Amino acid sequence: MKIHDTPLAGLKRVVLSPAADKRGTFTRWFCDRELQVVLGDRHIVQANHSYTERVGAIRGMHYQVPPHAEMKLIRCIRGKVFDVAVDLRKTSNTFLEWYSCELSGENQDILIIPEGFAHGFQVLEAGSELLYLHTEHYAPESEKCLRFDDPALTIPWPMPPRDISPRDAAQALITESFVGLSVN
What does residue 123 show for φ and ψ, rounded to 5 degrees? Predict the structure, then answer.
C-alpha cells in the first residue's frame, strides 16, 4: 500500500500491491496501521456500496457539512469510473479546484477524500460498483450537493452525462456568496 499526495492538500490516492499467484490475487485494501498517517484519530464508522448500470451516468457531487463532515475512502470494486473530488475548504489554496482520476476494479486504487470536499463520479463501464468507507455517520440534514455541470467548476466529464438524479439536477449553481466550508 503506497499513499500518494495529489495536487489538492489532504486528498490522497492509494495504490495497492496485490499478491498474485496461479490462483489469482489477494489484496489488503484497508489497514488502520498503514492508513494512520491519513486517518489520524478518525475511525471508519460506516460502509456503503453503490451499483450503477448505465455508462455515462453521474452520481454526485455530494458532501456533508460540519458537524457531520466526513472523510471518505472510495474504491471501485467492479467496472470503471471517472472519479472527481472538489475542494470546498474556504481557507484552502485550492478552493473550488478539483482532482480527477480513473478508479477501476482492475487498478484497485483508492481515493481518500478528506472533510470539506465534494465527491462524484461518472460511470465508464456498465455495472460499475463502488465501495465507500466513511468516518462519520450519514446525516441527511448535513448533506449537500454541487451541480455536476456547474460552470464555476468546469469539470470535463469524459462522455455526455446521463441519468442524473432529480435531486442532483435541481441543485443551485455556485454563486459569489459561497465562501466555502470551515472544517478542522
Answer: -75, 125
